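User: Predict the structure for this protein chain, please.
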Amino acid sequence: MTERQAEVLAVLSRLADAWNDGDAAAYASLFTEDADYVTFFGMNMPGRAVIESAHRALFQGPLKGSKLEAGGGEPKVRFVRPDVAIVVAGGGSSLSGGKPEPGRESTLTYVLVEEPDGWRVASFQNTRVTDPAAKAS
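Assistant: Here is the predicted structure, written as structure tokens:
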């Protein structure tokens, strides 16, 4: 792994730490001011302020005590320019604070940009992993 890849992946680690601490301000601080955050059910939360406000409500309400964990193998980090990285990673969550629960696995896509104060997430997409063949039967 290169130093630049490690820098990018450190942002994802800090995102998980902030989520696991229930810290909406720390979580949102890792996004650009104009970031787009697309939830697993397709809702877009535009901008850092909206991301923080929405996550504060989630961390105090239905996702209080929830935990994130990486999964799905090594994240794929691709630099489309020296200051822009795309990361595709797997992950899961637990509402009870334990191990990720079945049915809560996601494929996560991040676009990170390097700003003067470090890497920030400019766009995020959470897609819940499903098996269409299983649903058809």
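The longest strand covers residues 67-81.
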